[in-house]
Amino acid sequence: MSIRDVTLRPGELRHRITFLTLTKTPDAGGGRAVVEHTEFTVWADIRPASRNEVFEGEQVRGTVTHDVLIRDSSEVQALNLVECRISFDTSRRFEVLAVARPAERGALVRLRCREVPYDG
Length: 120
What we know:
There is one protein chain. The protein has 120 residues and is mostly beta strands. It has one helix spanning 74-78; strands at 15-26, 32-48, 54-56, 59-62, 66-71, 84-88, 92-100, 108-116. It has a single domain, classed as Thrombin, subunit H. Helix content is 4%, strand content 54%. A six-stranded antiparallel β-barrel has the order 1-2-5-8-7-6. The chain has a two-stranded antiparallel sheet with strand order 3-4. It is globular.
């Protein structure tokens, strides 16, 4: 599915997702703990992906497991999405591997993501 071919119909953005930023803070043992901070919540369409790999600088960055489609907004544009995680259904986490915006439209953003273990 090409993002240029996507036409949203009412109800397709049916999943509520939350964007999280990760911060490393010192812990009591002298190490660093990763803390999740909630940035904002949006409606999304989450679909299993059929792609195997994302290449970045001639290297494999990760395996894409899901495509997440959201509406573009000033919040989305202000955040570096590739440094975020997405929380879905309180127990699932996705790491954003790549961001695609259709040329000239600016209405939709497709996030190519990899599901990561959630230990929370």
